[in-house]
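Exercise (ungraded).
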Amino acid sequence: MIPMGQRARVASRILARASAEQKTAVMLSMADKISAEIDQILSSNREDLKKGIEAGLSESLLDRLALNVPRLEGIIADLRNVARLPDPVGENFDEAILPNGLRVSKRRVPLGVLAVIYEARPNVTIDVAALAIKTGNAVILKGGTETINTNRELVKMIRSALLECNLPADAVQFVDDPDRARVGELLEMHQYIDMVIPRGGAGLHQYCRENSSIPVITGGIGICHLFVDESADLEAALEVIQNAKLQRPTVCNALDTTLIHQAIAREFIPRLVECLAEHGVTFRADETALELLQNHPTGTRILPAGPNDFDTEWLSLILGLKVVQNLDEAIEHISIHSTGHSDGILTEDEPNARRFIDEVDSAAVYVNASTRFTDGGQLGLGAEVAISTQRLHARGPMGLRELTTYKWVIRGENHIRV
Amino acid sequence: MIPMGQRARVASRILARASAEQKTAVMLSMADKISAEIDQILSSNREDLKKGIEAGLSESLLDRLALNVPRLEGIIADLRNVARLPDPVGENFDEAILPNGLRVSKRRVPLGVLAVIYEARPNVTIDVAALAIKTGNAVILKGGTETINTNRELVKMIRSALLECNLPADAVQFVDDPDRARVGELLEMHQYIDMVIPRGGAGLHQYCRENSSIPVITGGIGICHLFVDESADLEAALEVIQNAKLQRPTVCNALDTTLIHQAIAREFIPRLVECLAEHGVTFRADETALELLQNHPTGTRILPAGPNDFDTEWLSLILGLKVVQNLDEAIEHISIHSTGHSDGILTEDEPNARRFIDEVDSAAVYVNASTRFTDGGQLGLGAEVAISTQRLHARGPMGLRELTTYKWVIRGENHIRV
């Protein structure tokens, strides 16, 4: 692993000075190669799927690792999209001329070498390589064992695109070894790696945070809340909650808990349950909500909330329901149970909206919108490498700019400090 | 330590919502209290000095821990200065209305809880507490054993100023225990601490990086270079180098190595040596420089550079000298030996200046100026909590803004994701 780190460091220095045109050319060449080699990629992917079935992987995992022509076309379209985004490297900002005449500015530069540790989905291989190249960073990829054949094939194409554009192939390297011990070794290589991005479950994030001597971007774990205030437009609230819960229930910004103001609970909760139950949602309700639903026709779908239910990221068709006395109790509940990912209020009351924004300390705080918008693509970043729920460097969706750092550039006329 | 962390977390939530006026009032009250209690502070400080002398601390360490009336007046002036700076908390930026009508912005918010681990100088206690309060962060201070009496006295005043302004005293806590094991415990408390800032030698930084599950701001170690290009104004270069080496030789942005273009080496090096030698500087010269100095009158001050001399942060009146063939060799030397703190070129050639800026990847890159300007106060930040030589979150001098993070604020009209 050490030589791999050394090669990445050397490659990163060259990539950092590549022009925007050169980097765009690599991405377009990657897109062409994937396009031209679809059969070869699908055949490697079938090998992975076959081994996955033999190994007894779950349906959902097999689905995540499977490629097909439409999925590959999506990957190619995303690549061409990233290629078109403006290059953040070299941008100057915070420019100033100081009273003594020193000219000071900051210049955006690549971070250096990234390590990305991920599972299953092979599209991450292409996404991450494209974002790294675009931002002038070298990257070491450690994908899941279950996609090793597909990833090997994709990385071959990426490296050949780099070479074709006179850039070092080692700008994108791949840990071609299924052994998980390699992850631990990566996390120790702080001389060669500048940032670790785990993309996977809470266990992987915790492991990286606890075992890394390199800064780790933790995130992607969302226990997300919507609070239906007394003044909310209840019709609209039903739609927003339905969207937040159902549009894609298995992702981190899907809704986990709905908090309902007691003044509207009696009217709203039965309607909410009815509207979601018909889409297969089941509920974990606090005592008050449970009482309001006592004789509800969908009663079998409603369980009393257990002690850990409000601290669970459901990633499925389960929704927590809790009646709160007022905005204070809603904010208090969120401050205790939220993972700081995405939380929102549905209200027509502007002072309440402001208090919620001021007092809820999550990466994304919403007023009258679905939590599903926490996504680089949806929030105007053009692309996304991860969603950070930590507080340093970057918070919430991370796009191109968040894969850069800056240096201070100071120009004088032989200035000395007095 | 855990209850201390819990108290800090609770206090941080209250401090995060304090108004700019309230925070300013705390700082002004701190200044008044220090002013009123100078005798009490000096008496605690004398206790520390007495114990320090008994324990055989070095002259320079005793000097760093000593307070006197002018030093306390300096601390009070700095406090009033920080109080006057604009409050970064609550600032909105990157505002946009997306095509679907969602209104998106980022709002600057405090990081939460800081832990600062430092040695000797008691002014750090006041500086750091002021910067933390200003930015709405709670802070846990772990000062050096040798200043425990002085720090205890200062922290008492800070906490009483907080209470007086209706803010929780626990916003500033002090580990009143000389045992170094407490540092290890702090570094594990990631539930309660958001950022660790070590202020001390390379050993402390390394210990923190290797043992912390909390993000650590490493920095403050500078092996700094100036390259005298063929086209440099040699008279001016002498002055700049003299300033970078002599203005304060014991700090991280003082000059360590001078690289000299071979075309001017024969003329420049003897003059440089003459001019610095009379201020007590001694030299570690590479073979070529040594040859040029063979019959120099200050010969006894010049030693051949040993194998580690170009990788040493001198923090004293020693200067490395090396003759390079050209700009490429200078950049190459810096890329190998610099700690990425502060490096500069002295040149009248604009293309060379540009290449140096583009290719030298240090936190601060200089053209025609002394490296001694790498300092928050000198570069217009108004105050400084640390100088970061890592790449994430903040690089170079860190001021108030670098002690904050942001949250995304997203306002819709019951928007759903399609």
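Further reading is listed at the end of the chapter. For now, observe: Chain A is about 40% helix and 20% strand. The domain at 224-373 of chain A is CATH 3.40.309.10 (Aldehyde Dehydrogenase; Chain A, domain 2).
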